[in-house]
Amino acid sequence: MTKSIERDSRPDDTAAGPEQYFQQMLDQGKFMIQRCERTGRAVFYPRAVSPFGGGPLRWEPASGGGTVYSATIVRRREDRGGDYSVVLVDLDEGPRLMSTVVDAEPTDVRIGMRVQAEVRRTPEGISRVVFIAAD
């Protein structure tokens, strides 16, 4: 089940191929990544062929677990939604992705912090991967 996000998002109606499938899975509340069939290495962002030699990729559910690699704060006026964090997260499977930590004050987000992915919907109805602090 997806939950709502209070941040601005811009829909991308140009998604096709692997990006389209990824978005369809997010719309069903599923965070999926790809894995190279030759090397077994996990891949993110969605692609048509593996970056590790061009071999085939298969889809699998992501564990969602990860560690904050880098964090910053985007400062905005309260009437524009207030401050929020932007993070790079190293997924437990290996890939790194950019997102936000939604359940913590931006000043409380730290490098090395354990996080868990969730799929949430923006006010515009777009499903996105965000993170919450893991205990």
TrEMBL record:
Which segments does the entry list as coiled coil? none
Pfam families, from UniProt?
OB_ChsH2_C (PF01796), zf-ChsH2 (PF12172)
Where is each ChsH2 C-terminal OB-fold domain found?
59-119
What SUPFAM superfamilies is this protein classified in? Nucleic acid-binding proteins
| Location of the ChsH2 rubredoxin-like zinc ribbon domain | 25-49
Which InterPro entries does the UniProt entry name for this protein? ChsH2_C (IPR002878), ChsH2_Znr (IPR022002), NA-bd_OB-fold (IPR012340), Thioester_dehydratase-like (IPR052513)
**Protein name in the entry:** DUF35 domain-containing protein
